[in-house]
Amino acid sequence: MNGDKVFFGLSRAAGVFVLLLTLGIGVFLAVTAVPALRENTANFFTTQQWLPDANPPAFGIAALAFGTVMTAIIAMVLAVPVGTGIALFVAIYAKPTLGKVVAFLVDLLAAVPSIIFGLWGLEFLMGNMIGVSAWLDTWFGWIPLFANDQDVYTRSIFIAGVVLAIMIIPTISAVTREVFVQTPQGHVEAALALGATRWEMIRMVVFPYSRPGMISAAMLGLGRALGETIAVALLLSALFEINWHITEPGGNTFAANIALKWNEAGSIGLSALVASGLVLFLITLAVNMAARLIVARKRDFVEGH
Amino acid sequence: MAKRIDISDLDAYYGNFLAVEDVNLAIEPRQVTAFIGPSGCGKSTLLRTLNRMHEVIPGAYVDGKVAFDGEDIYAEDVDPVNVRRLIGMVFQRPNPFPTMSIAGNVVAGLKLDRGRKVKKSEFDDIVERSLRGANLWDEVKDRLDRPGAGLSGGQQQRLCIARAIAVQPQVLLMDEPCSALDPISTLAIEDLVRELREDYTIVIVTHNMQQAARISDTTAFFNLAAVGEPGKLIEAGPTQQMFSNPANKATEDYVTGRFG
């Protein structure tokens, strides 16, 4: 028996298995979702309420999609620059010993379970963030996003986004750090020898070289932010309205809604939750494919040699 | 625009390890000075101290003085970034920026904040002038927007030379620029060095003694007593004399191929 053939067979089987698994999950979600979608009397995509077990059932994902995307955007806006900054510090600016300590602490943070982040967010961060939210309202209230007409600043999409950001910073910084240190020393020295400052060297060499990896890191973080369940479920007040005032209480996400509603749901209710899960599945799939397209398009120039 | 370099009492360290000990050497403007010597003798290390690239390596530092037209580049108020602006460098392995086009590589140094202030409209002229200066223009003029990394090794090295001279440095340091190249590319680079000598002070590190004999005006020979011992400057003088009638026995043994 040819060992090469065995290995080829095994690795191909593994590849096919992953493909079938993804496909199987998609099919399961779609099939399970059908009964609820059949019975639904409201528009699945635009309705801002969730009454699948009422008679007649009426539910829609509008608020869930809004909350999921908005918390993820807030998390990304905060976490990508901070995570990249930490990675730059560890990989380039810090002395090797200090860099190792910081990298270790960041990795430790990545291992903290999300329920801990949720509790910490609820018990500590929420109260301490009131000032920040109020400050945003006072000075940037003219931007509708930051306006707060209720003068209540807790349990908001903004807080959830901040907690998500803290959760995904370790992921982003750990991956980007690994990419940054791969930058060929020859290119770094070429830039420095031209008279580039360190920051210019980073923009000239490190960022262009690392771009595909940085996008991958951001996507890993985004995936976690989109799918995060328990921390968000603890933090948000689970309203089914789209509220653009992100510092006001309210908002809900796909994952949090499924976790909160699963136990009390009837048969149509369960099916409806699976339908919302299917949408989340498709969103993450679309995000990942978009990221791959961006990475592939950038790559042909880098690999010219 | 070429300037002279005076090295005095220079020691170069990697952490606790003394790599080069007590070098005193004058490098004349508009000449090619070659550093030769066996592996590990510190010639590349010394070269890298001349534009403060040595200290880029964690833990590396120098003790002593390198005067650039009389001004010590290791004085406390000197920013290494400004030193490197004036003293260009070409490395052993060709290292064009992989994400930039051929033209983009040439003007990379001009886009830096502390670079020579040049209008964007002059970029095309500078690209052509620098590539002509590096004897590469005819080979790449039709594909200036293609990746620089797509060129052959010899072309990449000439592109790196074009990139270095585009910012009009005073001195050009070359760290074994031909060691990764084929013989034809090597000849092309050697021709180029002879031409560049008209305008620049050139210091070249080479393993190839014939190369040193062919292109340099002054040769400095470095040696080390044993592995783990610091490298030292044994002697320096006009290349002709160094190869025909050196003062030191070790130099004679080395240039005649008896060791190294």
Structure description:
The complex is a heterodimer of chains A (305) and B (260). By secondary structure, chain A is mainly α. Chain A has one domain (2-304): MetI-like (MetI-like fold, Orthogonal Bundle). Chain A has ten helices and two strands; from the N terminus they run H-E-E-H-H-H-H-H-H-H-H-H. Chain A has helices at 3-39, 62-93, 96-110, 114-140, 157-180, 185-193, 198-227, 230-235, 254-261, 267-302; strands spanning 50-51, 58-59. In chain A, strands 1-2 form a two-stranded antiparallel ribbon. In chain A, helix 2 (62-93) packs parallel to helix 5, helix 6 crosses helix 7 (198-227) and helix 9 packs antiparallel against helix 10 (267-302). The longest helix of chain A has 37 residues, at 3-39. The model of chain A has no long low-confidence stretch (mean pLDDT 91). Chain B has a single domain (5-255), classed as P-loop containing nucleotide triphosphate hydrolases (Rossmann fold, 3-Layer(aba) Sandwich), CATH 3.40.50. In chain B, helix 4 (123-133) packs across helix 6 (153-166) and helix 6 (153-166) packs parallel to helix 7 (183-196). Chain B is globular. In chain B, strands 6-7-8-3-9-10 form a six-stranded mixed sheet, sandwiched between helices. Chain B has a four-stranded antiparallel sheet with strand order 2-1-4-5, covered by helices on one side. The longest helix of chain B has 14 residues, at 153-166. Chain B has helices at 43-49, 80-86, 102-107, 123-133, 137-140, 153-166, 183-196, 209-215, 239-244, 249-255, and strands spanning 5-14, 17-27, 32-36, 60-68, 71-72, 87-90, 171-175, 201-205, 218-224, 231-238. Chain B has ten helices and ten strands. The two termini of chain B are 36 Å apart. With 260 residues, chain B is α/β, with parallel strands linked by helices. The model of chain B has no long low-confidence stretch (mean pLDDT 91). The chains are: A mainly alpha (305), B alpha/beta (260).
